[in-house]
UniProtKB/TrEMBL annotation:
Biased composition (Basic and acidic residues): 164-178
Matching InterPro entries: ZIP (IPR003689)
A GO molecular function held by the record: zinc ion transmembrane transporter activity
Membrane topology qualifier: Multi-pass membrane protein
Stated name of the protein: ZIP Zinc transporter, putative
Annotated spans, Disordered: 143-181
Entry superkingdom: Eukaryota
Subcellular location: Membrane
Length: 357
């Protein structure tokens, strides 16, 4: 964790705390961070319920683009760089002291694992979709055959029989249609499948990252915590906005959407609670080589996950949005500039927060 404080106040995860530690101040910081996390997630989610925002989807696209820039900075500056500092702590396990690029190695491994997972899940979903479509064709053919046979059996029975047959088949079709609604169906649009996968993976990455940040912030003295509270507030606010925009884009059900938002919102406070309780018991409770090494590896992995997601959004969603809003129509140049400004603003704001966090 980067700090501008004096050497005697600066905390090393290799050692216990040496400065003054106020549990009350840390408890207050927990509630502040919880509020920031909830607010960040809520801002994109409320766009679904505000009519003026629903009628102007470009506003949401700007927010989503801002979130892409945020993810780029979080992955590189807040996670991979932070992991590099942790790998260079003097107490890191000896096995990790013989190579100077472990943070990049683990980040690359995570990114490649994400790519493999993304591809496999998309392939499974696509096979599921094709199988479901083939099943629908078979059902339709069977219904057509049954309808034809019934029609032949009723030939010559008069208009009354024909009338009964006409009324019967819609009823039968309705029953079949009802059964198909009870079945679990994959989405017909593979683009939507990828958005769902992206949202779930982002939830995993930012939630675990927030837990680690919370633990680290909980292990700071009062002198360090005061400036960090402001940085962490905006850190969670921007990350929450990034996650919330992906949840909206994935079109989850309301209950699942809110559940995922709450899961992220409580992650950083949970980490702070754990470390605050541990420090209140013993200032050396969470420290040492094993803890630092584990934290460095996990930060590297989360950094790789979020970096993969950020470039996925940049190369796919951002490009698609640019074609939709910046390639045609009146004011296309203005919209294009707005999207670029949003992307760079998100990146720079989160990079600025990295000066303190």
């Amino acid at each position: 964790m980067t700090s501008t404080n004096s050497t005697e106040d600066k905390t090393s995860l290799c050692e216990g705390l040496t400065g003054y530690y106020s549990v009350g101040l840390h408890v207050g910081a927990i509630f502040l961070v919880l509020f920031a996390s909830l607010a960040g997630c809520a801002l994109p989610l409320i766009t679904k319920y505000v009519k003026s925002l629903r009628e102007n989807p470009f506003v949401f696209v700007v927010g989503k683009t801002l979130a892409t820039g945020v993810l780029l900075s979080v992955s590189c500056i807040h996670l991979i760089f932070e992991a590099g500092e942790q790998f260079h702590e003097y107490c890191v396990l000896p096995a990790f002291q013989t190579y100077n690029a472990y943070e990049f190695l683990f980040a690359l491994m995570a990114a490649l694992l994400m790519q493999a997972l993304d591809g496999e899940l998309a392939e499974i979903s696509e096979r599921w979709m094709h199988a479901n479509q083939a099943s629908d064709v078979v059902v339709m053919q069977a219904e057509g055959t049954e309808s034809h046979e019934t029609s032949e059996g009723n030939n010559g029975k008069g208009d009354i029989a024909d009338g009964i047959d006409e009324h019967h088949h819609p009823s039968h079709g309705d029953e079949t249609h009802g059964h198909s609604h009870l079945a679990v169906r994959p989405p017909a649009d593979m683009g939507h499948v990828r958005k769902v996968i992206s949202a779930i993976c982002m939830e995993f990455g930012v939630t675990f990252h927030s837990i680690f940040v919370g633990v680290a912030v909980g292990l700071t003295t009062n002198t360090e915590l005061k400036p960090l509270m402001v940085a962490l507030f905006f850190h969670q606010l921007f990350e929450g906005m990034a996650l919330g925009s992906r949840l909206v884009d994935a079109k989850f059900g309301d209950s699942l959407e809110r559940g995922l938002a709450v899961m992220f919102a409580v992650s950083a406070p949970l980490g702070m609670v754990v470390s605050t309780i541990a420090v209140s018991v013993s200032k050396d409770a969470i420290s040492g080589g094993k803890f630092v090494t584990t934290l460095a590896i996990l930060n590297s992995f989360c950094g790789g996950i979020l970096l993969y997601l950020a470039f996925n959004l940049l190369l796919n969603d951002f490009t698609a949005d640019m074609k939709t809003y910046g390639a045609r129509g009146e004011g296309k140049l203005k919209r294009k500039i707005i999207l670029y400004v949003a992307l760079w603003t998100g990146m720079l704001l989160m990079a600025l927060v990295g000066k303190w966090l």
